[in-house]
Amino acid sequence: MHNRRTFMLGATAAAAALGLAACGGEGAGSGGPDPDAPPSEQTVGVAMPTQTYERWVADGNNIKEGLEGKGFTVDMQYADDDIPTQQQQIDQMINSGVSVLLIASIDGASLSAQLDAAAAAGIPVVAYDRLLTDSENVDFYVTFDNYKVGVNQANALLYGLGLLDESFEPADDAPEGPLNVELFAGSLDDNNAHLFWDGAIDTLQPYFDDGTLEVLSGQMDIDQAATQRWEQETAQKRMETLLTTHYNGGEELAGVLAPADPLSRGIINALQNTGLGPTIDEGLPIVTGQDAEIASIKLIADGVQHSTIFKDTRDLADQAIVAAESILTGGEPEANDTETYDNGAKVVPSYLLEVQMVLESNYEEILVDSGYYTEEQVEAGQL
């Protein structure tokens, strides 16, 4: 049961589908899809949050290449994690008359005025990976199953601690608790951060309840664990403070739930700087992650970072392109979830993709054999 989920469930698929019809008609502006126009005469506006994270660069490149390969024009803008910049970029796209908008938001609740303007101009909106909230004017959502991301992160932590075996069943030789762990969350203005947290905490809660796991700092609420803008330096400073405050008297830290690879690397820096490790085999606590960034894959291969979650941005970009092309040609994107993602104003029809847990034992199979990275890139820790 998703007993801590913050999203309202149970709305009907029919209600969820109303938005596309509402936005797809004639609007006040000159934008919007024209099914009779050739692809070369239709422009897709793509708003991305930042180029700081490796994965957003990959997302942008994949989307641009895929759409242009189908003949569409792409107006892509990165906002450098600055909300006013993203607002201005989307305003500019609307004023230029784009046919459809793909938006990966910095703050999902910050674009209501832009979404209203898009609807008035007849421009459909596809939310990309991050849900756009508090607006009726969101037509479709493409993302990964972000609750399962959190579940996988928690299971990776439990496996690394020896509480689960290789089949992710309770281990016969599990260590006796209590084992001390600390919890990190993402940026509170990113809707996905809450889903990651819910999935992880729901999975870990039984171990907290029976005393197998303890959070020595007592910081078990998402507000306490949050990391604004997903910044590596912020995570490193918080980990340093936790170590100084709660682990300076011989207390042992067994593991850290980290929701993204940059945070993982900041946490690992803090741990190593106190003399722990430098590898897991040499006493470094178990640290999880997400996004399979190349620097973290090298750390996993070297036995430093325990795990990450791979969300294949190639597949996400492909699905976004499918959704955009469907809209541009007068159709309606196919959803595989019409209940989960209530954005506060409507249930947004969504397409969810699966995720994979990456460990030292399987990174080659998942990432190298699939062509996502080369072995040389993993060895160098850079693209």
From TrEMBL:
Keywords, in A-Z order? Signal
Instruction: State the organism named in the record.
Output: Brachybacterium faecium (strain ATCC 43885 / DSM 4810 / JCM 11609 / LMG 19847 / NBRC 14762 / NCIMB 9860 / 6-10)
- Which NCBIfam families does the record match to this protein? ChvE (NF040907)
Question: A GO molecular function for this record?
Answer: carbohydrate binding
Which cellular component terms (GO) are annotated to the entry? outer membrane-bounded periplasmic space
| Range of residues in the leader sequence | 1-28
Where does the Periplasmic binding protein domain start and stop, copy by copy?
Answer: 44-331
Its main subcellular localisation, reduced to a broad class, is other
> Known InterPro entries for this protein?
Bact_Solute-Bind_Prot2, ChvE-like, Peripla_BP_I, SBP_2_dom, TAT_signal
Where in or outside the cell it occurs: the entry states: Cell envelope
**UniProt-listed CDD domains:** PBP1_ChvE
Q: What is this protein called?
A: Monosaccharide-binding protein
Tagged with keyword S-adenosyl-L-methionine:
no
